[in-house]
Amino acid sequence: MGLLLYEEKGHVGILTINRPEALNALNSALIDALSVKLDEISATTIRCLIVTGTGEKSFVAGADISEMKDMNPEEAEAFSAAGNVAMEKVERLHMPVIAAVNGFALGGGLELALACDIRLCSENAMFGLPEVGLGIPPGYGGVQRLARIIGIAKAKELAFTTDRIKAPEALALGLVSAVYPLGELMDAAMQMADKIASNSPMGVWAAKVVANSSVGLPLTKTAGLEVPLFGECFNTNDQKQAMTAFLEKRKPEPFMGK
Q: Is 7 annotated in the active site?
């Protein structure tokens, strides 16, 4: 079946990490395949991407410890660098990315979820950064992204203690946006993805660029960041027809992305 499964439903893509025999753990082959696939997805016209894992136990249970165990420092750096590249590709996709976390999201799995724009999870989800208990730090940008989402003190606590948190605490911390019964998770993710995809692709892209480019910076450094993006949207037919429809008190035509 391959390490990754991919399908498109309308304007929504669904990317599934498919290594169930290892609880979808990330090894070098999977990271490489993910990086290549993300390049392919970036070239498509889909308007939203859902990332999930095969099975009912695990989104991604972490990086593959059996592969890492005997790495020398140079090999370990290359492994970390490849994972960082893949996570950055997720984060920089032109379309929003929803993580549908269906179980364990530990180590590299949490780092993958953190690289996504929105996280939804099932009631059996479990989150954590166990790396320091194995003699290493999180290697794929996890501490940095987690600190930006839930605050630096709690991110440090989770990284330093290796404590795991369940779905209700993840929701309370703002790590996930919603919790669903396992059997309802993908339907909920699809419903959100379809709603995103029904909006202006240019407007959604511009909002994502502004959000990602301004996070962690004071407004004095980012004021006006949206100005050129705002102006660029006025080159689109989508803007013209949607505003006309609003003034005429009717629904706009479907957005065409141009």
A: no
Q: State residue 258's pLDDT score.
A: 85
**Selected catalytic residue, list 8, 131, 169, 226:** 131
pLDDT score for 216: 85
pLDDT over threshold 70, residue 224: yes
Which amino acid is residue 108, in one-letter code? G
Active-site pick, 40, 111, 248, 253:
111
Question: What pLDDT, in 10s, does the model give residues 119-159?
Answer: 999 999 999 999 999 999 999 999 999 999 999 999 999 99
Nearest to 131 by CA among 55, 57, 80, 78: 80
